Amino acid sequence: MKDIKPLFALPVIVAALGYFVDIYDLLLFSIVRIPSLQSLGVSSEALLDKGELLLQVQMTGLLVGGVIWGIMGDKRGRLSVLFGSILLYSLANIANGLVTSVEQYAILRFIAGVGLAGELGAGITLVSEVLPTRLRGYGTALVATVGLFGAVLANFVAKHFDWQTTYFIGGGLGLLLLIARASVFESGLFIKVKEAAVERGNFFMLFTNSARFKKFIGCILIGLPIWYVIGILITFSPEFAKALGVDGDIIAGDAVMYSYLALAVGDFASGFISQMIKSRKKIVLIFIFLTLGAILLYLFLPIKTVTFFYIACGILGFSIGYWALFVTIAAEQFGTNLRSTVATIVPNFIRGTVVPITLGFKFLRGEMGIVYAALIVGVITIIIALIALRSIDETYSREMNYLEED
Prior knowledge:
Layout: H1 10-39, H2 47-75, H3 78-96, H4 102-116, H5 119-130, H6 133-148, H7 150-160, H8 163-180, H9 188-195, H10 210-221, H11 224-234, H12 237-243, H13 252-277, H14 281-299, H15 306-319, H16 323-333, H17 339-352, H18 354-368, H19 370-389
Helix pairs in contact: 1-2, 1-4, 1-5, 1-6, 1-7, 1-8, 1-13, 2-3, 2-4, 2-17, 3-4, 3-5, 3-8, 5-6, 5-16, 5-17, 6-13, 6-16, 7-13, 10-16, 10-17, 10-19, 11-14, 11-18, 11-19, 13-15, 14-15, 14-19, 16-17, 18-19
């Protein structure tokens, strides 16, 4: 038991709870999309288009915030990001419950997106640096597994409260967590680098070295299928169910909940197995192929019942359960003076790819329908991820105490 005691240290627990609140707030829009837009006067015919717009705005905020918080994490410290990001998205979500128009909704989803961008990268960076190498994969898997249950809470709250109250609750949870973070300590590796005469958080260093740039792009693109599944197949699950002829009504919140429960299981499994076989890349490869199989099952349902549709959502969730491993790989690829920058930018750039993915999906949807448009976009993301996997290093046993040089 003593050997795994560091897994339950305060930084790990607080990072896990932070990601729990992050996921609650991030997915809340997907869960309350239809009732919230209906209450703002959006017609049934426009729900999909307005939903896509707001999702794109939120993900653009994540992309912008990823750069801001990532650089700040290397310049000012991991804790500054954990405090600043949660304060911003908590206040934005409270304000979100007061909107009276789609335009206000869009502005606040952008601001919330900027705030949400800092949580996971800073948390994974901190956990990666405070845990010993033998526990690093377990620690990041634990953070992601606990965090993903935020989707379950979001769905539960949405079933029992109106959509405005769900946003108030999310903001309140964030402010409570802000108080808990007062006792968390900074990464020792960051403190050492801060005391040294080393350039930190220079975003442009990622572009001045071809090998470093190739790794950076590779780290982003291996996660492309994850947010294709979440941003398209799960977010718009009611529309897919209708197109597939499912016999019954599908609730978006339930689809999100089942997929994220399975995603939590997948995250724990991928992190655990990667530690056991001492490889990150092999596990990512397996899960990418699992994702391809799950996409085909979902889009060509052999059984047209509500139960089987939710099972397909769960299989999709498990197959993309290399999310924590994906962020861990990004943190391990780069030195301490760039680690937060990359670990924060990478997951948010992937979240930001929902914008071009949804635009491509929308374009193809008009030509060939919702199912085959989704199939083409999904296969493209799988191919890109497989190519990108070749460009990154195997980092299972890498020590974290090193720097990136010009």
